[in-house]
Amino acid sequence: xxxxxxxxxxxxxxxxTYFSTIMKIKDIVENNRIITVAExxxxxxxxxxxxxxxxxxxxxxxxxxxxxxxxxxFFSSIIVGIHRGNPEWSDVSISSLxxxxxxxxxxxxxxxxxxxxxxxxxxxxxxxxxxxxxxRLKGLRSAFQKNNNIGEEEVSxxxxxxxxxxxxxxxxxxxxxxxxxxxxxxxxxxxxxEDDLAAINSRRLITEHEHLSxxxxxxxxxxxxxxxxxxxxxxxxxxxxxxxxxxxxxRRDFYTLRPSNEVIEEYYQLSKSFWDFLFxxxxxxxxxxxxxxxxxxxxxxxxxxxxxxGSLLLRPVGQYFMAKTFKHxxxxxxxxxxxxxxxxxxxxxxxxxxxxxxxxxxxxxxxELRLKERLFLFLLGDLNIVGYDIQDHIRRIYDxxxxxxxxxxxxxxxxx
Length: 416
Known about the structure:
By secondary structure, the chain is α+β, with helices and mostly antiparallel strands. It folds into two domains: about 5-170, no CATH class; about 185-400, no CATH class. About 40% of the residues lie in helices and about 15% in strands. The chain has helices spanning about 25-30, 45-55, 55-70, 105-115, 135-145, 165-180, 185-190, 195-210, 235-250, 260-280, 285-290, 315-330, 335-340, 370-380, 390-400, and strands at about 5-15, 15-25, 35, 80-85, 90, 100, 105, 115-120, 125-130, 155-160, 295, 300, 360, 365. The strands form four sheets. It has an eight-stranded mixed sheet. Strands 6-7 form a two-stranded antiparallel ribbon. Strand 1 and strand 2 form a beta hairpin. Helix 7 (about 185-190) packs across helix 8 and helix 8 (about 195-210) crosses helix 9. The longest helix is centred in the middle third of the chain and has 21 residues, at about 260-280. The relative contact order is 0.09. The model has no long low-confidence stretch (mean pLDDT about 85).
């Protein structure tokens, strides 16, 4: 990419040095000199897939149309980060005799102006990505493709220098710039947060964990639910994050300040221990993530489908309740009992255990969360709540569907 010299101002705010400049639209979009965060190296491939999904094509089309059809079009500054390459700053010197309207600048004014404006030279080897203004950037690309004449127009940009050694600092800036402008979806906040321990470890899990890091393990949805037509993804980023918060069991204010690296590592190992337990207890999950489909668990086809529902383990809500169960047995120092007996539970949504409680007539049942949580403790022989008769609650659910309950749901194991 060709070298380019940009007139600009240099300033500082907080820990950031920034450069305010202008560029011709053609210099921004040709050869993709400036790219989106999802096209950059700022995040892993899994996370960039989710970020890319957040780009609103309709909004891009609206921006392109506005640029091409409205003669009074105007843009606020696009904020971009520079990664790699060797951008250079050259001062434009001001003489102490510099005057405005024949009035020589005083010493204080000269001191402030000194080193504040000059030329930013980009070699063409840089990676430059939009921290704020990704839709505007794509709108510029679209408009330029339709009418090259717009390429001579000039757009304001603010450059900040990204340092690979402090990548979380750039992510945090991305958070600040995007978090409050338009309320992000839950997945976006998890991707952007640099202070929330659960979010930090969620990103690490889908980056480093042996199975969660596999490309097709994670749905690219921005919510906690897997899309109805997605039969291959195992879980979602939002689910991984919610499970972290179950495991950590902390107050909301705990997630507002970034903890030490030692604390982050401690809780990461806790998160990892749950997913290790799940994958080790059910190697069928590993095979599913690896793309196999002719899999059976306890005689039932191990899948997720709209007719019978398939296995609860392949749905985020099932993973959520497994985390609740894991947390209970870990806190009671009885994980061995869980590990030894978990495979004996019938996780088939249309089976005799979960039907009506989790699934009925082609759809998931969203209510009765407390009963669902206690059901697994009961099945594993560890439910002893005074005044709580789980059979009565199950019978009530059956009554709602005009079905007779014959007390067929029983504990599969007793705590010794």
